[in-house]
Design goal:
Blueprint lengths: L6 E6 L2 E6 L4 E7 L4 E6 L4 E6 L2 E6 L8 E5 L8 E7 L5 E9 L4 E9 L4 E5 L3 E7 L8 E9 L5 E8 L12 E7 L10 E7 L4 E6 L3 E6 L5 E6 L6 E7 L4 E6 L4 E5 L2 H11 L3 H11 L8 E5 L2
Antiparallel strand pairs: 1-2, 2-3, 4-5, 5-6, 6-7, 8-9, 9-10, 10-11, 12-13, 13-14, 14-15, 16-17, 17-18, 18-19, 20-21, 21-22, 22-23
């Protein structure tokens, strides 16, 4: 389903068709030569397709409405199941992620690709997202990539927030921050990050794991601010940013819709009084003044 328009894309074998639901009009269609093993909407105009050999973008509203190969897949992804594909808003950066079940853990490889440099790099990351965000001290927003990983069943995971190039005049030197998160013992073997959502307006990074653990992190420092369990009975299926609240919504395998939002006053007081981070609390407090959040909570709706 298109993220904004009443448009739906359908797949039958290697044949793809895009329809306007309201008018029932066939907008575009194509026939892929290679088998497509993963596909998703990138934005309202582009559908991404991942095959065994490469990654393609299908721009629906252009004169040449056929999928174009953007980059080739790395050999390291050959034995991994493709589970996610992300791009920056400018489409200058892309990332395809694959997972593989090991004896005592879930391993992951993410291939990061730069269109400007035609360069690729494989990194260990279970979840990734891009955002355009004005880091503290910068004059202008820049593109950042957020990564979350857990290696070899270790109880500790890693969060990275990396500012990508090219450097924007007036901004500080590109930054790279990372921190650790602790996984719960209940699902200590197979729990891992499956989704990242960035609230660019509020400077928060939401890290959601397969078994429903939520970590709220600070984008500017990558540090974890607080954590809670948002799904107790089923694994998380998918998530999205809730732009109305600056929080996150998700759906678990039981069909429950989960909504999480942050109480700004409580979070600022927690940072200042419990974690003893007055500068971080002051910076977030300035951002929160424009918001009206309800208390940090989870609301479940049975579908």
């Amino acid at each position: 389903m298109n993220p904004l328009k009443p448009v739906i894309a359908l797949k039958a074998g290697n044949v793809f068709q895009v329809y306007n639901i309201s008018t029932r009009e066939l907008l575009s269609h194509c026939n892929m030569v290679e088998d497509v093993i993963f596909w998703t909407w990138v934005n309202v105009e582009v559908i991404a397709m991942v095959t065994a050999q490469g990654v393609f973008h299908w721009c629906l509203y252009t004169d040449v409405a056929v999928p174009q190969q953007i980059f080739r897949r790395e050999d390291r992804l050959e034995k991994f199941q493709i589970t996610n594909y992300q791009t920056s808003a400018s489409l200058h950066w892309m990332a395809v992620t694959g997972l593989k079940a090991e004896e005592d853990s879930i391993s992951a490889v993410t291939q990061l690709y730069s269109c400007d440099n035609h360069a690729t790099q494989c990194i260990q990351a279970h979840a990734i997202c891009f955002a355009d965000y004005k880091l503290d001290g910068n004059r202008h927003p820049s593109t950042i990539v957020c990564l979350a990983s857990r290696h070899d069943g270790n109880m500790d995971g890693k969060i990275h927030v990396i500012e990508l190039g090219p450097h924007i005049a007036g901004n500080l030197a590109p930054s790279n921050h990372f921190s650790s998160i602790r996984f719960t013992e209940e699902f200590n073997t197979y729990d891992f990050p499956i989704s990242l959502q960035v609230s660019e307006e509020y400077g928060l990074l939401y890290v959601i794991t397969k078994y429903g653990q939520l970590y709220v992190c600070d984008v500017d420092t990558a540090s974890c601010l607080c954590t809670l369990r948002i799904s107790t009975e089923a694994v998380i299926f998918t998530t999205a940013l809730d732009t109305a609240t600056g929080g996150v919504i998700g759906i678990n395998r039981r069909g429950q819709v989960l909504s999480v939002a942050v109480h700004p006053t409580s979070l600022v007081m927690y940072l200042r009084d419990v974690l003893n981070k007055p500068k971080q609390a002051e910076r977030l407090e300035k951002m929160f003044r424009k918001l009206s959040f309800s208390n940090l909570k989870v609301v479940e709706y049975d579908c």
